[in-house]
Amino acid sequence: MDYGKSGMDIQFLPGVGPKRAMLLDKELGIRTVGDLLHLYPFRYIDRTGITPIREVRSDAAYIQIQAEVRRVTLHGAGKAGIIDPEEGKEIKYNLIRRMSVWVSDGTGEMEMVFFKGIKWMHSRLKPGTTFLFFGKPSAFNGQLNMVHPEVDLPSNPEETTWSGAITGVYPSTEKLHNAGITGRLMVKLVDKALQTALVDIRETLPEYLVKEQGLVPLQFALRNIHFPKDTAALQKAQYRLKFEELLFLQLALLKQKYIRSRNENGIRMPRVGEQFNHCYDNLPFDLTNAQKRVIREIRDDMRSGRQMNRLLQGDVGSGKTMVAVLTALIATGNGYQACIMAPTEVLAQQHYKNIQKLLEGTGVRSAILTGSSKAAERREVHQGLEDGSIGIIVGTHALIEDNVVFRNLGLAIIDEQHRFGVEQRAKLWRKTSCGVPPHVLVMTATPIPRTLAMTLYGDLDVSVIDELPPGRKPVQTIHATEGKRPALNNFMREQIALGRQVFVVYPLIYESEKMDYKNLEKGIESIVKAFPFPPYKTAVVHGKQTNDEKKFNMDAFAAGRANILVATSVIEVGVDVPNASVMVIESAERFGLSQLHQLRGRVGRGSEKSYCVLMTGTKMSKESKHRIELMCATENGFELAEEDMKMRGPGDLEGTQQSGLPISLNIASLAKDGLILNKARECADAILSADPSLSDRKNSQLATELKKDKYIIKDYSKIS
Ligand code: ADP
Ligand code: MG
């Protein structure tokens, strides 16, 4: 967009100048006239949609009122009461706790209440001036009011070239406002910018795409995103700009995948092999159809001669371990080594135990390597990896230490991917001496909504196990508060009397570690009191224990020697104790949705009916309440993940925090624009499969646009 006037320094736009230009850059990142055109309104005011105060009800949703300020009162802290500033005397704003602004529109009077930003608002809301107030009405002591409404000056249609009924509202800050860059001026500036530079804006999408996808031209979109002719034009403009943004995102991601699939050799593993078949034939149960399908997908990858880069998603308990083992056996059956990396010692131990069972009779030698492996074992394992006698190695980060060398690593399986950094993964790939990168299977139990997975892992193939093994009973989820504690204890005793086991989990949130351990200690104390030994046995696992202590306690619980396991959220990752039928989560409001879901997945693995009890305080934020309600309403991890994303935005989704989005989005939202994203994905796929390097002349605009900095994606998900 660096053509003609759109590349002009913003300071030369009439009404800006050097001082304001500096602020616009600092506060909003706007340097050129073109930048301003891409600062889209975050909200629109429909001037036809103004509610008379007489008709306002306290239970109404967000509304807009146009009214004149009548009087303003400032309330001091505590008993200070109303502060009446004397004429000419400076107001001590730091003493003011509340400001009431009474406004009237001729049909009635209403109070606007402010607790923050009082100084600024006090200077704006002068009696006699008319404003638009946007917010949610509420009632206090039977009086209607609005707390912290958004305040705008009503726009004056004569001042712009545009005369529609819908006005954009632009992001603003106190600093901008103090420099005179008000909402009203912003509208004017954007209008000026459109007049100056719109004609120079070149279409960024090829004509055939615009036609094929039924999009409006870029110039139309930019004009109407700022000054919509009507609602329909606004929607078309939004669609076009969102589609474009998502299309370029997908093109950037997929292009890497196409390039890789052409260039990158992988180890050809043509056979399934005896070892696979032996294990398969001796499984204690039939694989689910989903497991079979996923194994087929993996097998096809491994014999293709190209490197596999596959993400395996499956809800907790969907049987990913089985798939991992069978995959590893394809590698060993073709004469290569496989490694399985787990994020914690406990989980590595558990994997190792399970895997040994499955490997019986296959003749494959397996071993484990973790931080607590003794020096002698370590030497032996290193030797076995180097000479190739160990076929499958299970381990933690210890596997990527410098002195670990593989003879011929052909497959790396990474469990719970989000706990491994890119660097660490890359290190592992470099350990192979056969010159070709190993196949990679990344397993995650964090359900990631499809739309997000496509974006975060745009260059990985995705397999999903969307079916749980048969015979699982649903887990009944119950919400309870402290008053129900005696009943809960009774229930736990009943379950223990039936021979079942109980998890009790405490949150651990890093910032207040001390407090957390205090909570945990208090919790352990009260459990031991309510469940005294004998007859009850309680095991405890938390982060401050040594690995031996942890292992001792985990083993006691896993083997059924302890009835109760009190733990911090370290158990979240993958322990399998089918006899456990109750999961009690303390301070459940402090956990995120996907974490709660992971924890709940620890029960319901056996054939007994299982329960998840969410203990919370009586006072909860709206969001916490919503989370708890959702947990009680559904067991579907993907549904929960979708909701989680809607509530918190994709950036906050657990497990995706570190990775983040490769490209920041300006107008589209992964949470809300899933349909457009799907379309953009299909479209990008079609374009690249016909023209992988975008060298066709009809795609030249796409190629040019993709070269811009904003589309050079961070290399975080490329794992070869
Ligand atoms: P995940 O790692 O996906 O959370 P696991 O691999 O730990 O799940 O499997 C959970 C439990 O289900 C294990 O006890 C496993 O033995 C069992 N399991 C796996 N696949 C099947 C199947 N097809 N039928 C019955 N049980 C299965
Ligand atoms: Mg698992």
Using brief descriptors, characterize the structure shown.
disordered C terminus, 720 residues, 38% helix, seven-stranded parallel beta sheet, binds adenosine-5'-diphosphate, eight-stranded mixed beta sheet, alpha/beta
Topology:
Elements (H helix, E strand, L loop, with lengths): L16 H12 L4 H5 L5 E4 L16 E14 L5 E2 L12 E9 L4 E6 L3 H7 L5 E6 L1 E4 L2 E5 L2 E3 L13 E4 L4 H5 L4 H15 L9 H6 L5 H9 L4 H33 L10 H8 L7 H14 L6 E6 L5 H14 L3 E5 L3 H15 L6 E4 L5 H13 L4 E4 L13 E7 L6 H8 L9 E6 L5 H7 L4 E5 L9 E7 L3 H13 L3 E6 L6 H18 L7 E4 L5 H12 L5 E5 L11 E6 L7 H8 L9 E7 L5 H12 L3 H12 L25 H17 L9 H7 L14
Parallel strand pairs: 5-8, 11-16, 11-17, 12-14, 12-15, 13-14, 15-16, 18-23, 19-21, 19-22, 20-21, 22-23
Antiparallel strand pairs: 1-10, 2-3, 2-4, 2-6, 4-5, 6-9, 7-8
Helix pairs in contact: 7-8, 8-22, 9-11, 10-11, 20-21
The chain binds adenosine-5'-diphosphate and magnesium ion.
The site of magnesium ion (MG) has 3 residues, from helix 11.
